[in-house]
Predict the structure of Methyltransferase-like protein 17, mitochondrial.
Amino acid sequence: MIPFKRISYTLNFIRNVSNKFTSNSVCQYSAKIKPVVTTDETVLNDINNSMFKPRKHPGIVKPKTVQLPEEFVKAVVNALEDRPVKALAADSRKLFLHLKGRNPPIEKEELNRRVEQTKSKVLSRFDNVVINTDEEERRYNQMAGNKMENILRKSIYNWRPIRYDSHTCMLYLMARSAAEYAVLIKIFSEISGRDPEFKPRSLFDFGSGIGTATWAANAYWKKQLYEYVNIDASREMNDLAQILLQGGRGSGTVPKNTFYRQFLPATKSMYDLVISAYSMMELPSLADRLQTIINLWNKTERYLIIVEQGTNAGFKIVNELRDYILQVKSEGNEGHVFSPCPNDETCPRFLLDDGTPCNFQVNYYTIPVGQTSVFKKELYSYVVLKKGKRTEPDIEWPRIVRPTLVRPRHTICRVCTAKGELKEVIFTAKKHGKVTYHCARASEWGDRLPLTVNFEAVDETNCDISEVSSDSDRDDNVNETICRVSDSEKCKSTDESNT
């Protein structure tokens, strides 16, 4: 029989060791937000059944690189037949850069505020100046006026409307046709892919320019489209667009039911597809932009597309028009965002206000006229608004809003979620499965991921027990003490197993 004192001594020793163990350990408790990814069941089954491969999942927006149609290029060659093509190509680059750096005109209230602010700042520098004569007063007033003018000239964008005469229209054709066509092809491609039952009969293009929207729409719905209405303030631009449709010589046949106007019609006719591409920047004020966009929305039967440069200025215009339309709650005029946003919430990029726009990128080849066709990238900001409430089953799919970072054994995607949040998700084959991992790896900036992302708080406990766990002698003492309260055979078997 084992003496009671020995058992008591043994238990006390173990208790002391345990107390010392816990007293030397430092535990930290924290809640970490982790993404919970759920891949779309239909997509997962289709890939597993070899219906398509992960690199061709339905969230990918095609095509990757866009080229102008041969028919359009031939029409441009014919239209420029008697013109100095190389000189036009060189001058068109200047117009391209000018349009890329364009900003909307400053509002009157903001202009007055900046003038008063600058005036106070300049006059404060002359507070201690003693003026004795009228001549000195005149000289100081002139100095202050010149100083104010210089400051305002540098700080305020000098917006001026661009007059598109015949020559400027040709420059615009050379500078912007390929990029604008590529952007619209990308947008129309997603509409066609996600809404295959959409067969537009009519198209309304505000700020139609050289007619790139007509050419891009014909790439998807030429057999269905019956009516084209093109609105552009420049008569010369309308003439050029019509000549291009006639093959570039002006002697061909204009497609039936194709109309050109310089002003928005007052009729209440509605159109399946309404487009405003690179036009809102040319309106003189916010009030004009809002009035124009509500007129376009009232003419929209199914889809309204707004596109601007992928700059901060372009993004700001697209976002303000998006929010304005979503606030319209009149009966029969309700709508939602079809793309790029997977939600109707306030844009998280706008709320972040980090100086970067919500934009996307399309690859294209420049027009091969008067210059070698080269590979380029175009940044653009856009929104596609659809009439009615959301009914699509895939509204939860997040959109990749920055370039995908493909790394060894993992892929990083920055996405905009259905809850209107910007999140970063790191995909691995081990954690998310090979199908989901390869889908993420094949996706690019602007694509949607065929999954849902929810973020949950996970409690984590980290304890520092290095001092105790490294003390092998103490562990041996514990084992030895335990053996004292056992029979000799158990101790022997324990020692043999340890060796």
In short: Residues 465-499 have pLDDT under 50 and may be disordered. The two ends are 29 Å apart (CA to CA).
